[in-house]
Amino acid sequence: MTSDKSFYEFISNGVPGPEQKVDADNAILPARKLAFSRFKELGLPTIKTEEWRYTNIQRYLKDAFTLAQEEQGTVTAEQLKSASIPQLDSYRAVLVNGRLQADLSTLPSGGKVTVSKLSDAAGNAQLQAWFDKHPHLQSQPFAALNAALFADGLFIEAGMNASLDKPLHIIHVYTASANAFIQPRHLVVLHKSATLEVIESVVGISDNAIAFVNGVTEIVLEENAELWHYNIQNTVKNSRHIHHTSATQKADSRYHHFNFTLPSAELTRNNLSVALTGSNTETNLHGLYLATGTQHVDNHTFVDHLVANCNSNELYKGVLLDDANGVFTGRIHVNQDAQKTNAFQQNNNLLMSEKANINSQPQLEIYADDVKCSHGFTVGRFSEEALFYLRSRGIGAEAAKSLLVNAFAFDITDQVHIPALQDFLAEKIRQYVAGAINN
Amino acid sequence: MLTIKNLHAEVDGKQILKGINLEIRKGEMHAIMGPNGSGKSSLSSVLAGRENYTVTQGEVIFEGKNLLDMAPEDRAREGLFMAFQYPVEIPGVSNLHFLKTALNEIRAYHNLPALESKEFLKLTKEKQQLVDFNANLMNRSLNEGFSGGEKKRNEVFQLAMLDPKLAILDETDSGLDIDALRIVAAGVNKLRSADKAFMVITHYQRLLEYIVPDFVHVLYNGQIVKTGTKELALELEEKGYDWLKEEVHQKESV
Ligand SMILES: Nc1ncnc2c1ncn2[C@@H]1O[C@H](COP(=O)(O)OP(=O)(O)O)[C@@H](O)[C@H]1O
Ligand SMILES: [Mg+2]
User: Fold this and answer.
1) Residue B97, φ and ψ in degrees, nearest 5
2) DSSP helix/strand/coil, A324
3) How many domains in chain A?
4) Is the peptide bond before A264 cis (omega within 30 degrees of 0)?
5) Which residues contact B84 (CB under 8 A, 6 or more apart)?
C-alpha cells in the first residue's frame, strides 16, 4: 500500500480477500465474507462519527501498511521476560502476531478446559454458533474488518463445571519488521457453571516499524459461569491498538473484567461491551489507564441491560502525565423490560501535568422505570500539599509521586485477586511515574 | 545546630518573613509564640522547604550545611522534622506503609540497610505507646478520617519514629484536649536529649507548663521582636500581645 491511497481502498481492493483464508474446512468462510461486505458498507469512521469524535483514527491509518502474515515472528525467551509476571504460577499461552507458539506455551491438558488455535477449531460447533455473532459488533467497522481478514487467535472452551487449578496467562507479542496491520481474533466460551481466570498481557518487542493491531475477543458465559478477565496492555511506543472485547452473559453468570492500559502504545482504543441476556448476572468492569508522553488512550464501554434483575458496576480510573490524552465513554443501556436493574458507573481522573487532557462522557439510555443507575466523573489535579507532606518525611519526589498514584489506583488494584499481579502492577506504576518525572 | 540569619521570605509576591535571626543549639527547647498571621507557620514552612515560599534574603545553616539549598526530602534525611499545623489526608496510602517508606529512605540516605519487618514492627509498637497512638489507626489511610487530635498525635508518633535532630512542632497543641495534651507533651519530653533540639510553635502558655522551654521568642509581623525565658510566656498569657505590638510600633516611629 502507498500512503496516497486511502486505507479503505487498500483493504477493499488491495489485499487478498476472505477467500484466501484457510481455516479448517473453510468452516467460517461464509461468516468472513459476510463480515467483509459489512465492513465495505460501514466504511471507516471519521471524527464526525459520534463514537470516534475524540479519536481521529484516520490520522493513525495514514501510514503504509502491509497485512502481516508472518507465520513465525521471532520471539526469544529473553524477550518474553518483559511480559512475565514475577511469582505468578500459571498456565501460559504465547502468541506472536496472533499465532499460538506451542513451543513457548504451557497449556492445560487432559481436562475440560481446552486452548487451541482458532483456525484449527473453525469447525467446532461452538465456534460456528458464536463467531462474529455478538450484537454489539455488527455496527463496528473494525470488528467487521477483523472478522473478514483476521490472521488467527485462540479458541478457549471450558466445559460444564470446569475450572483450572491456576490462571491462564496469555502473552500476546506483536512485532513488525515493516509497518504491519495485524488482526488477531479470539473466542472464549465458558459452559454452564465453568470458572476461569485469564490474564492477558499485550506486549511489543520492536519499535522499528509500526504494528497496528486490530483485535477482537468474543466471550460467552453460559448459565452460572464465572470469568475473571485481566487485560494488561503494555506495549512499545510505535504500536497502535484497537481492540473490541464483547461478552454475552447468560443467567446467573459473573464477569469481572479488568483493563490496565500502561505505556507506551501511541494509540489505544478499547471497545468493551457486555450484553446481558439472562437475569441475575453480575458484571464488574474495572479500568486503569496510565498514559505518558503523547499517548492517546480511549476507552469505550457499553453495558447492555436487556433483561431484568442484573447488576453492573463500573469503575475506570485514569492517570495522565506529560502530554497524554484520555477519552472515556461509558454507555449504559437499560431495556424497557430490564426492571430492577442496578447499573453504576464512575470515572475518575488524575491529571499530573498542565498539558494532559481527558474527555469523559457517560451515555445513559434508560427505558425501564424501576432501576437504580448512577454515574459520576471527576478530574483532579495532583495534590502538591500531599506531595510536600510525603517529601517532608524524607520520601523522595519520585517515590512520593508513585505512592500517590498507587494510592489513586488502589480502588482498582485492590480488586485484583492475584497477589503476584497486584505487585506487578504496583511496580509498573512506579516505573512509569518515575520515567515520566525524569522526562 | 541551626543558625538563621536575616531570613526574608515571600509568598505570592507578599513579604512574610522580614529578617529572622535565631540560633538553636543541641539540647535546647525553643518556643515561638506570636499572634495569628505573624509568620510562625511560614517560618516552619520555609525551614521544611515548602516550595511556594521564596527566600529573598538571608541564610539558614543546619548542622554545618546550607539548608536552603536542599530539597525537602533531603532536609528530612539530614534530620529536620516538621509536625504540620494542618496534617494532610492521603487516601489510599496506609499509615504503616508510609512510615516504613519514609524510615527506609532516610536509612538509605545514611547508607543503612532497610529495617527488617520484625524490627520495624517492634519500633512501631514502642513509639506508638510513647504517644498513646491508637494501633487501629496504623493500617488506615494516612490521616484519612482521623479526628483533629488523632492527626496531631500521628504527627508526634511520626516524629518519634523518624527520630530527627531538630523537630519543629507547629501548633501541635491546638485541637488537643487537656489529657491528650499531657500525653503528647510527656512523649515530647521523653524524646528530649542532649543532642536533639526542638522548636515548638504555640499560641498558649498551657503547653509550656508541660514542655518547659529554654527560650521563648515572640514573632510579630515577620520578625522576632522579643526573646526571653519561660517567664515571658507567662507574661504574654497575662497581658496578651498588644503591649508588644505597641512597643514595636514605637520603636519603628523613632
Ligand atoms: N499562600 C499564601 N499566599 C498569601 N499569603 C499567605 C500565604 N500563606 C500565608 N500567607 C500570609 O502570611 C502571613 C503569615 O501566615 P502564617 O505563617 O500562617 O502565620 P501564623 O502561623 O503565625 O499564624 C499571613 O498574613 C498569611 O495570610
Ligand atoms: Mg500557623
Assistant:
1) -65, -40
2) coil
3) 1
4) yes
5) A389, A392, B155, B170
Cβ-contact A82, A294 below 8 angstroms: no
Output the CA B45–ligand 1 centroid distance in Å: 10
Strands B197-201, B166-170: pairing kind: parallel
Q: Which of residues 371-410 of A touch B (CB under 8 A)?
A: 383-386, 388-397, 399-400, 403-404, 406-410
Integer Cα distance of B237 and A58 in angstroms? 74
Q: Is residue A239 part of a domain?
A: yes
Determine the distance from the C-alpha atom of residue A416 to the mean position of all C-alpha atoms in its chain, rounded to a whole number.
16
Per-residue pLDDT, A2 = 38
A36 pLDDT above the threshold of 90 = yes
Q: How many CB atoms lie within 10 A of CB B4?
A: 22
Which residues touch B246 (CB under 8 Å, ≥6 apart)? none
pLDDT value at A3 more than 50: no
* A324 inside domain: no
Total residue length of chain A: 439
State yes or no: pLDDT of A246 exceeds 70.
yes
Q: Which of A232, A225, A297 is nearest to A255 (CA)?
A: A225
* pLDDT value of residue A5: 62
Query: What residues does each domain of chain B span?
Result: 2-253
CB contact set of A359 (below 8 Å; sequence gap of 6+): A54, A326, A327, A328
- DSSP labels, A237-291: TTEEEEEEEEEEE-TT-EEEEEEEE-S--SEEEEEEEEEE-SSS-EEEEEEEEEE
d(CA B148, CA A307) in angstroms, rounded, equals 49
Domain carrying residue A272 = 7-278
Any CB–CB contact under 8 A between A109 and chain B?
no
Cell triple for A390:
510525603
Please say whether the beta carbons of A322 and A350 come within 8 A. no
- What phi, psi does A77 have (nearest 5°)? -60, -35
Rounded CA separation A80/B135 (Å): 44
CB-neighbour burial class of residue A200 (10 A; exposed 0-12, middle 13-18, buried 19+): buried
Question: What's the CATH code, domain B2-253?
Answer: 3.40.50.300
**How is residue A164 written as a grid cell?**
483450572
Phi, psi of B236 (to 5 degrees): -65, -40
Residues of chain A neighbouring B102 (CB-CB closer than 8 A):
390, 393-395
Cβ pair A141, A58 in contact under 8 A: no
Cα separation, A343 vs A359, whole angstroms: 21
Mutate to test the interface with B, among A317, A395, A401 (most CBs of B within 10 A): A395
SS3 state at A437: helix
Kindly report the average pLDDT of chain B as a whole number: 92
Distance from the alpha carbon of residue B12 to the mean position of ligand 1, in angstroms: 10
Q: What is the rounded distance in angstroms from the CA atom of residue B228 to the CA atom of residue B207?
A: 17
Q: What is the ipTM of this complex?
A: 0.96
pLDDT tens digits along A76-105: 777 788 789 999 999 999 999 999 999 999
Does a structural domain hold residue A108?
yes
Q: How far apart are CA B236 and CA B213, in angstroms?
A: 14
Query: Ligand 1: does its nearest atom lie under 6 Å from the Cβ of B42?
Result: yes
Q: Which of A133-137, A138-142, B248-252 has the lowest mean pLDDT?
A: B248-252
**What integer pLDDT is reported at residue A70 of this predicted model?**
57
Tell whether the model's pLDDT for residue A141 goes beyond 80: yes
Q: Per-residue pLDDT tens for B72-129?
A: 999 999 999 999 999 999 988 999 999 999 999 999 999 999 999 999 999 999 999 8
Q: Which ligand 1 atom is nearest residue B35's CA?
A: 22
Q: Is B170 helix (H, G, I), strand (E, B) or coil?
A: strand
A68 lies in a domain? Answer: yes
